[in-house]
Amino acid sequence: MLKHISQISEQAFLIDFGPDINIELNQYVLAFSNYIFEEMKNNNRLGIKNCVPSYNKILIEFEPQLNNKIQLKNFILSIVKKDTKFIAKRKTIEILVCYDDEFALDIKDVSNQTKLSKEDIINLHLSTDFYVYMIGFMPGLPFMGDLNNKLSVPRKLSPRVHVPCGSIGIVEKLCVIYPNDSPGGWNIIGKTPTKLFEKNKKNPS
Description:
By secondary structure, this protein is an alpha+beta fold. The protein has helices spanning 23-41, 69-81, 107-114, 118-126; strands at 4-9, 12-16, 48-53, 57-62, 131-135, 142-145, 160-163, 167-171, 174-177, 182-184, 187-191. The protein is elongated, with a radius of gyration of 20 Å.
């Protein structure tokens, strides 16, 4: 599945697994990154500072002064050669959602674009078991998929300056939950009281 390894700075490699965004590939990416995390937790002779998985890529930051880029690249290639079935651990988390108009700021616009009633939008959203592809944009914000195709809408032409904490937004086949107040251009269809990120906790997210 690995397509390309490129050095994008003096202290970072980007591992590219191709352009696709799907659960099977993302599971492979997450499991692949677990090997890198294990190296970091053990002796970490390669000087890996950080490992950031996304939909279909992994960013590895390393200590440039160790001058071991070749060894690090060989380590990455050795993971590819492992005769191992990549399966990342998964667990199910239930999130409460309120779709009242005061929280569903864009549900009327979504209804107009999709020709679906508010009730249909809610039912389609609730009937989906979402998969978290990655955490990004801000601490604790999950990018989840895949939305029912009937709910596919583009980003808002004019982003909001303020999106309230807990707001649930949709764009195309993805869904996000805003863990903090933030600007944003996603279509807000509801809100959750669940706290996704609390910076003062040992495990904030």
